[in-house]
Structure formats: C-alpha cells, structure tokens
Amino acid sequence: MTGRTMWIAIPFFTLFAVSGAAQLGRGEDQRANRPPNAGATTDSAASVAGIFSASTYVIGLEDVLDINIWKEPEISRTVPVRSDGKISLPLLHDVQASGLTPIQLGAEITKELKRFFTDPQVTVIVTAMNSQKVYILGEVKHPGPVPLVPNMTVLQVLSVAGGLSQFANEKRIYVLRRENGNELRLPFDYRQAVEGRGSGRNILLQPGDTIVVP
Based on the structure, what is the number of domains in the chain? Predict the structure, then answer.
C-alpha cells in the first residue's frame, strides 16, 4: 500500500499597519500561490509596535482590509469599510466588519464561506487604519484630524500639521485624553521636548487624543 502525505492547512490572521491611506500591494499570482501557513505567526508576534494587534485592534469605518482566501483569487479583495460598517465580498455580499477584530472577522468570513468551499483558509490584513485618528487644533498651519500610526508622538503630529504658527505658545500646549470616563489634560512643553531636556517629554498618543496649541 502506497503511503500518502496529508497536509493540514492552518488558517492564520495577521494585522499589518501602515501610515495614512497607504496600502500593501500584492499581485494576484502571489494571492493564489501563497500557502495558508506561510509566515504564520502568533497574535503576539503579529502585534504592531506594541499598541495594535490582531486580537485587540477593532476595525472601524474607512479602514482598508485585504481579504485573502487561499487559492481563490477571484473572490479575494482589498476593500474599504463603508460608512455602514460593512464590506462587500463576492458570494457573501455584505459582511459586517466594523466593531470586530481582524481575527473575529476572519472567523466570520470563514464560517460563511463554508457554504461554498470545503475548507476555506482566510487571511484578514488591515492595510490602512483610517479609523484611528488624533486631532490637532489651535495655532498650527494645518489643524484637523491626523491618521494615527503606531508609536506616533505629539512632535510627529505637529510635523504633519505643518508646524506651529508664529503666534503659538510653545509652553502651553497640551493633550486632551478620555480615559475611564474622565478627561485628562497632559501638558506638553514644545521647546523642552525638542531639546530633550527638563520635564519635557514627547507624549505617545492614543486614538481620539486631541492636541491643543494655544
């Protein structure tokens, strides 16, 4: 009796993040030929810069998702999360994405695809975290929302906003943050942060933070 080798495909879900609306490009041939366990990682290994991970990041409106079904390139898609919180996929039509983690969404898509395929292998990759924003207002050249990337700091957001205006009070800048239902005010001394001295510190930002430049 001739022995046969059985390959067991293990689904994996990985979260990647890039700044702004940049998307991770890949060809259709790469989609079709990539085995489901190539580069498989644990959720801990998949975490991005220590603050976003495949099990804790919650998909939001305007995020861009790469949905890859192994060996099924015709139904694999890179899709935005619509204003109703859903994405559109062949066969499944509308699928709720907002409010789920990439792992949860991958599991939901896998369950629905079992109506059409014996053992679907699904990868969900967040290629643009457009729902993750911070806000900057006051004496900067370009106030408004700024896409948040992992490990983003106040100085980096000030740079994205075009820098301080000539009327800005460098010593009175602060960050407003909601935490456990309370509003915190974190002082930020621009000059000290730039020079890396004294009590000045380059504050690590969180989603929803607002930087106020008097």
Answer: 2
